[in-house]
């Protein structure tokens, strides 16, 4: 074999090897089922939630009060705390509303809401269902709203998981009526027993996404993994919501610009941020049952309310404030409280109100 032939053969082999290495360098990685099954946003989670979430039991907010009396006192004033109540929790004037309407009080199991409207969970054919009757708390009138399919909507399967704390599907019971401390901090039995912050889910240890997931678990649409419940059964604060919740659907008013429809957690984030932006709309909301309950003249014809205008959609008693009160700047006296971490309290985004509120 001539030297020229050997040289050409060497060049050919070198080129072949180089081409193979180059192709290998740019070849996509082999498919790995375990690796690719992880949600795309997994790296955004802190992965440091307490193991107590898996073994702890719900002990209700009254147990939390033993050590956190000041926070408990503030929480009691929030709409979250008063989401689900009984008739005996209402004042006599509110109880009289039902009698005037001719409703059977003995069948009314729960009263929903405390901020804008009252709705009533009643026993019907062995199930709990929401009556198609809405009482406007501020106008003191019955809404003309009606739902011809109300008898087919089951409160325990479609609503209770978000209206209560510690919902258990084994017997469709719950630990606490309303949205209590453990709804945002997870079950607290081990924390209460050991008095150790390592045994409770801390908002401060969460990533921003984990914090948002707590809100998204109830303030976005979806179904659980069984397809039987309209809320993420089994989800606890700090978990990856995407593992418990699917079936995301658009809210009224969402468009392709803010809703992709691919059911990813990123799309769920878009829905949550969309809903937050609607809270200050000058007219109407996106919630199906509460839509258009508020109509407020902004004077400036602005699409969004100012902070004061938002407050005044419900709180019309500002004229009764003491003379030294600013009266026109709600945040001066009612700014959300701050805690040891020097950040605004996130307990229901609440404002502080007088004792008799």
Helix-strand blueprint:
Elements: H1 3-25, H2 33-36, H3 52-55, H4 61-65, H5 69-75, E1 84-85, H6 92-101, E2 108-112, E3 117-124, E4 127-130, E5 135-136, E6 141-142, H7 155-158, H8 160-163, E7 164-165, E8 176-177, H9 181-185, H10 189-194, H11 208-219, H12 265-278, H13 307-312, H14 330-334
Antiparallel strand pairs: 1-2, 2-3, 3-4, 3-5, 5-6, 7-8
Given the C-alpha coordinates, what overall shape results?
A: globular
Distance N terminus to C terminus?
Answer: 102 Å
Determine the mean pLDDT: 77
Q: Please report the total strand number as a whole number.
A: 8
Secondary-structure content class = alpha+beta
**Biggest sheet features:** 6 strands, antiparallel
Low-confidence stretches: 3-41, 288-293
- Taken in chain order, the helices and strands follow as HHHHHEHEEEEEHHEEHHHHHH
Helix content range: 25-40%
- Sheet-strand content, in percent, reads 5-15%
Determine Rg (CA atoms, Å).
Answer: 27 Å
What's the total helix number?
14
In short:
The protein is 31% helix and 8% strand. It contains 14 helices and 8 strands.
Written overview of the protein:
By secondary structure, the protein is an alpha+beta fold. It has a domain at 39-276. It is built from 14 helices and eight strands. It has helices spanning 3-25, 33-36, 52-55, 61-65, 69-75, 92-101, 155-158, 160-163, 181-185, 189-194, 208-219, 265-278, 307-312, 330-334, and strands at 84-85, 108-112, 117-124, 127-130, 135-136, 141-142, 164-165, 176-177. The strands form two sheets. Strands 1, 2, 3, 4, 5 and 6 form a six-stranded antiparallel β-sheet that branches. Strands 7-8 form a two-stranded antiparallel sheet. α11 (208-219) crosses α12 (265-278). The model is unreliable at 3-41 and 288-293 (pLDDT under 50).
């Amino acid at each position: 074999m001539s030297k020229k032939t050997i040289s050409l053969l060497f060049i050919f082999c070198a080129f072949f090897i180089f081409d193979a290495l180059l192709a290998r360098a740019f070849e996509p990685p082999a498919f790995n089922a375990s690796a690719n099954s992880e949600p795309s946003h997994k790296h955004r989670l802190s992965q440091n939630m307490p193991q107590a979430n898996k073994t702890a039991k719900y002990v209700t907010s009254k147990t939390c009060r033993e050590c956190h009396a000041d926070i408990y006192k503030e929480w009691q004033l929030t709409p979250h705390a008063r989401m689900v109540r009984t008739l005996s929790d209402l004042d006599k004037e509110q109880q009289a509303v039902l009698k005037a309407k001719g409703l059977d009080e003995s069948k009314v199991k729960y009263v929903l809401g405390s901020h804008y409207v009252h709705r009533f969970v009643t026993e019907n054919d062995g199930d709990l269902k929401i009556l198609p009757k809405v009482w406007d708390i501020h106008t003191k009138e019955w809404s003309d709203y009606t739902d011809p399919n109300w008898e087919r909507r089951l409160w325990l399967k479609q609503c209770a998981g978000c209206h209560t704390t510690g919902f258990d599907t084994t017997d469709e019971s719950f630990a606490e009526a309303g949205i209590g401390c453990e709804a945002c901090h997870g079950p607290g039995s081990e924390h209460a027993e050991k008095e150790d912050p390592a045994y409770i889910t801390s908002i401060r240890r969460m990533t921003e996404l984990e914090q948002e997931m707590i809100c998204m678990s109830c303030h976005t649409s979806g179904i659980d993994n069984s397809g039987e419940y309209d809320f993420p059964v089994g989800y606890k604060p700090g978990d990856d919501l995407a593992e418990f919740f699917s079936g995301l659907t658009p809210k009224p008013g969402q468009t392709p610009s803010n809703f992709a429809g691919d059911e990813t957690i990123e799309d769920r984030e878009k829905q949550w941020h969309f809903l937050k932006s609607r809270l200050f709309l000058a007219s109407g909301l996106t919630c199906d049952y509460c839509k258009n309950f508020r109509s407020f003249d902004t004077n400036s014809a602005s699409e969004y309310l100012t902070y004061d205008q938002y407050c005044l959609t419900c709180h019309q008693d500002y004229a009764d404030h003491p003379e030294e009160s600013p009266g026109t700047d709600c945040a001066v006296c009612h700014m959300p409280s701050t805690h040891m971490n020097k950040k605004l309290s996130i307990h229901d985004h609440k404002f502080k109100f007088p004792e008799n509120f």
